[in-house]
Amino acid sequence: MGQEGAQKRGPSTLPTSTAPNGGARSARSLLRGGAGNRQIHKTLNNIKITILCGLVTILVLRGTIGFGSLSSDNELENQAMIEETNRILAEIRSDKDPDDPEDNQNQPTINLNDTYTLGAKISNWDEERSLWLSRNQDFPNTVNGKARILLVTGSQPTPCDNAIGDHYLLKSIKNKIDYCRIHGIEIAYNMAHLDKELSGYWAKLPLIRRLMLSHPEVEWIWWMDSDALFTDMVFELPLSKYKDHNMVIHGYPDLLFNQKSWIALNTGSFLFRNCQWSLDLLDDWAPMGPRGPVREEAGKILTANLKGRPAFEADDQSALIYLLVTKTEWMSKVFVENSYFLHGYWAGLVDRYEEMMEKYHPGLGDERWPFVTHFVGCKPCGSYGDYPVQRCLSSMERAFNFADNQVLKLYGFRHRGLLSPKIKRIRNETATPLQYVDQFDIRHSAQETSN
Amino acid sequence: MGQEGAQKRGPSTLPTSTAPNGGARSARSLLRGGAGNRQIHKTLNNIKITILCGLVTILVLRGTIGFGSLSSDNELENQAMIEETNRILAEIRSDKDPDDPEDNQNQPTINLNDTYTLGAKISNWDEERSLWLSRNQDFPNTVNGKARILLVTGSQPTPCDNAIGDHYLLKSIKNKIDYCRIHGIEIAYNMAHLDKELSGYWAKLPLIRRLMLSHPEVEWIWWMDSDALFTDMVFELPLSKYKDHNMVIHGYPDLLFNQKSWIALNTGSFLFRNCQWSLDLLDDWAPMGPRGPVREEAGKILTANLKGRPAFEADDQSALIYLLVTKTEWMSKVFVENSYFLHGYWAGLVDRYEEMMEKYHPGLGDERWPFVTHFVGCKPCGSYGDYPVQRCLSSMERAFNFADNQVLKLYGFRHRGLLSPKIKRIRNETATPLQYVDQFDIRHSAQETSN
């Protein structure tokens, strides 16, 4: 990363204040000449000071903008490339369309008394969808006997503020690609803002709704944050538990109903059935989301009513908790799951991976071998996280490699250590590789389990 | 990206050379007093110069290291975070295991006279695979009547040298996820070096072999570079054309056999059937790959024999071309495809996207609407590409959005412009969304085409 070079230059060396000898001797002789000489002496002093300041100016210029021969060709080239890159990024980030009235709005036009809706009201989705499925037999809502799931995740369309952020977004999606390939799940990676008002963490609401309505063949929409990694590549969702429910979310009923804690549920990984009930819940959930005064005011209500909640604008998680504890009729179709880590808070898990590998095995999904490790608060894409950068980055690296080992096992490799990008063989090459396919392909084990 | 601030500071303002009036008057009176006064006057001058230099020193320090109140807390915090990140990156990148003899080898132990092999020799793969498929009916080599394809791509396990590189790797894999979801293709994203000797562009060979042997259910392995994007989301591979072939690669027979040009074929996007023939070709292809003297020497042979090839170590593409023109018996099963852009060289395509949108439509796959746009030579992940950075980045952004528009159409959106991350509606919200599913879901159109 070439940007470091320019920043780490030390202060420039200043020239000494000693005037050249020749100049001083001449001034002294002149002085002996009287008043006229005094004038010349003063003039020479001024010249000395001017030269001194001029030299210092040059050094300052060299120190700050690399003027002169201090920068090597490579550094200049790197510098030019970085500046060019930054210029393009700024252009992409600051995209403004002068003809688009939306870009010229500074204040949202949401009336605080309005009920915000995500789109045109739909009331017959179950019937419409059922009819569509019966007419489109080539697009069933099951795959190999299992309900069709669409995993949805995403990130901002512009480069991360912190360069390392994009690298971990990349590793995170690779991790999800691996899990989903093994388990026959489709992925939608979103990088577009569908609704200007529902920005940030609220953006998942219009996205989920849009995907439900555009993919009637999908039975479950599974939202998963970009900072959540699969760490149990064998574990499968026990969908039969949820046949009478429409939403599955990790949390604790006691924290939810008794304590009304703002972390009673976690919206970093949850499932919505594609049905009318879900569309209605989304509509009931959205009103605290529109950015600006609505979200600010809503934040105050949430802080006042939810235990432990700091003061900040309304977030989707707090809003959902508040919705469910105030309109408890929703709860009949919500499954609050904590028998496995549909969401697993990273801090208590990442240091135990070696112990897990020693004592347990994939497939458990719980505290012995967490299904999902979720890096809440790390925010590698942003400028400021809630935890030290080193702790977060090395922990994410460990989680990634812990999961990757489970994928590489089929191919005969594992990482040298949980912090290492390098891999090593765990078995010799063979002229009969199919024995290992039967033994190590996770899909085959899953097949045997269900038979 | 907070690094910009420190670099763009201008030269510090230097104080003027005028001494304070009070000091000058006192000096003059003293001078009238004679020689003793002259000494005092000189001393005062020295003090003036010292103060001046001291002030300038402080300004230089503030300008270069942010000493004092010029740097806000935010900048210092950013700086600390960047340094911490870089330290961790260096640690991850420089991972060395002192107990591993492999890490201590400086020279490869390949004998130039040996024939390099990718692994244990397998001679009965067709029979073994066929038997396995018959015993594992749950893992057929077809999906919805189409041959099962595994798209393989990947990138280095460590962060890119250029920060923007990871962002475009992320966009590139999202692009591939979209195409593969629409067309029922599985993805394997590789971030591991399976073979130390076959590094860099050669790494795809051991990877392809390993995946073939570990996934007998896969009929075609489709390698695609990370710098290649799908730009026709409708076009499907005409697999029936290849029923008698085992390799499909973009290229030009004239360039290949008559001119022996080093760019006659492109290994940035090609298909291998999962069969014995492919294993044998990989074995015949690999020997020029091992890094060090073998690859260097092989590079000289390739440069001497292939038209237009610059002098550099052996690359996989040149080696394949050389193999096919010298051992022409391989050609009976190689399909050199140029009726559509299985690989489309970006420079001649990216400026015509608007014209394409105006005149043509997705599904053509050729120069009118390229199937794949391949950013050969841009190398956004590395430090130095063959083209200006601005040209590459903005062109990749355009290609990405050109493709994304085709995906977003189902959801009712498109990008505001090909350089814009922002999207806008292309149709109004509706209470009857299923009409658009029938009309715009690409998979439904594909279904109709094949019926």
UniProtKB/TrEMBL annotation, chains A, B:
Membrane spanning stretches: 49-70
Annotated spans, Disordered: 1-29, 93-112
UniProt-recorded name of the protein: xyloglucan 6-xylosyltransferase
InterPro entries membership: Glyco_trans_34, Nucleotide-diphossugar_trans
Location(s), subcellular: Golgi apparatus membrane
Species assigned in the record: Deinandra increscens subsp. villosa
Family to which this protein belongs: Belongs to the glycosyltransferase 34 family.
Keyword Nuclease: no
Gene Ontology biological process: xyloglucan biosynthetic process
Keywords: Glycoprotein, Glycosyltransferase, Golgi apparatus, Membrane, Signal-anchor, Transferase, Transmembrane, Transmembrane helix
Catalytic activity: Transfers an alpha-D-xylosyl residue from UDP-D-xylose to a glucose residue in xyloglucan, forming an alpha-(1->6)-D-xylosyl-D-glucose linkage
GO cellular component: endosome; Golgi membrane; trans-Golgi network
Entry-linked Gene3D superfamilies: Spore Coat Polysaccharide Biosynthesis Protein SpsA, Chain A
